[in-house]
Please model this.
Amino acid sequence: MEPKQGELELPFPDLGADLPLIPLRMLNEHVYCPRLAYLEWVQGEWADSADTVDGRHKHRRVDKPSGDLPDAQAAEEERTEIHARSVTLSSNKLGLIGKLDLIEGEGSTVTPVDYKRGKRPHIARGVYDPERVQLCAQGLLLREHGYTCDAGAIYYVAGKERVAVPFEDELLTLTRNAIAELRTMAAGGRIPAPLVDSPKCPRCSLVTICLPDEVQFLKHEELSPRPLAVPYHEALPLYIQHYSAKLAKKGEVLEVTDKDGHVLASARLREVSQVVIQGNVYITTPCLQELMQRDIPVSWHSYGGFFFGHTTGNGHKNVELRTAQYRASFDDRACLRLARGLVAAKISNCRTQLRRNWKPDEKPEQLLADMKRMRGRAERAESLETLLGIEGQAAALYFGQFRQTLKPASADDEALLAFDFTKRNRRPPTDPVNAMLSFAYTMLARTWTTTLAAVGFDAFRGFYHQPRYGRPALALDMMEPFRPLLADSVVMQVINNGEVHPTDFASVAGSVNLDASGRKRFIAAFERRLSQEITHPLFGYRLSYRRLLELQARLLGRHLLGELDDYPNFTTR
Model:
């Protein structure tokens, strides 16, 4: 038997100026879950959870710098006692950078101490591999800076226990391999596959971004997805439409005042998902800066509801996603494939709305059959132009019978006349129903624009709608299947439930629009609809429409990045 050949350890090549250093925390994430590390480091994704917030809270003490880390040679000569907190070290040779919670020792012999918020795990080593690798990488950084470092320690805050971690050959090899693997994975530009039915996923803060069960289900349909993508969020949009109102920040509260300084409304910052400005409203600079720092978008509208655009911070860091979006938008076949699905889903959902909300006793069997036939034609369309024609024909059938879904709560002749509807018109809308439809579509476009921007897309580059100056083409694409579900349904609801009355409209020069009082009630109905929970027809768990829009946006991203063969459009049953 031939003797085993020994391994020759090769030094890391120095990084070039254009290659980023690996944060130590990313090594931890990579050993724990390679997909998580890729999402956070390469794609710039992040989401807080109770665990991450609690971890930051318990790190407050060690995150405050104190003490000094002297030069290793000087420390050895003077036998300096070292106790330094929150020290940042880096090395181009190792390709690492990180903040060390605590470094203690004497002379040039030191021990890094890493703080963890939980309790010591009941395993043989007392420390899981991700934490051991992260700590060992700290030791390697200290060695690069001339120190002797043969062991580290983990301090568990909740259990108040300290566990020693010797830097043995096995751990050093594991750490060096993790560095090389993470560097290679990032350079490869392909996200690792999600974990399969892993117990790690439910507690992961990025589970609603990663979508491990959903991706696996759409690819293999072997395991039903766990309800991972449906956490409850209390944050809601803040609408401001009072003339000459001012929005300012007062501590952790947003305060709306009139021109005389009287407080009109207030909302805690953590309970605001976005700010919607309608008309002549002023935002103070400190308030706008705080909103941008917290990634709370501000949407700007005319007083009548026309969507101008939105203000955000630096935007999402996921360049890979936007690159994939642009690449697909210049591929005619990819555009047609996505457009077919979007239009077919819209026609299907329009058909469902008619079937569910039809008021006359006699059911429209022929109309439903025609809509079904139109859906099939959309799925087989050979060009975007043909598809546009099919969509127009389906819309003519749908809106031609839209009046049959309306039955105002007030049955007097004036109300019936005011809410009479024969066809869709806009720019400007000439009757109350068209006015509400236009306003609902504007709000839906704004909702999709902010959702897509939050996920990392460019909302102005689409696949079906062609890009024009100032038009959020991708938002218009994505809202197609949701027009009947989130806009038309709200119009039906406010009319049939008597929430909006004929007296809530103003007519000027042939244009009809909601007045301030009617618009306020309509906005409330629209937001209630977004918060309504439904059962997802594919995944089987319940979620709100608000969360559904984000889920669909992320599934589109998974398709464009090559994880899913097709984008799963949302259609109701």
Q: What stands out?
A: The longest helix spans residues 332-357. The two ends are 67 Å apart (CA to CA). The chain is about 45% helix and 15% strand. The longest strand covers residues 81-91.
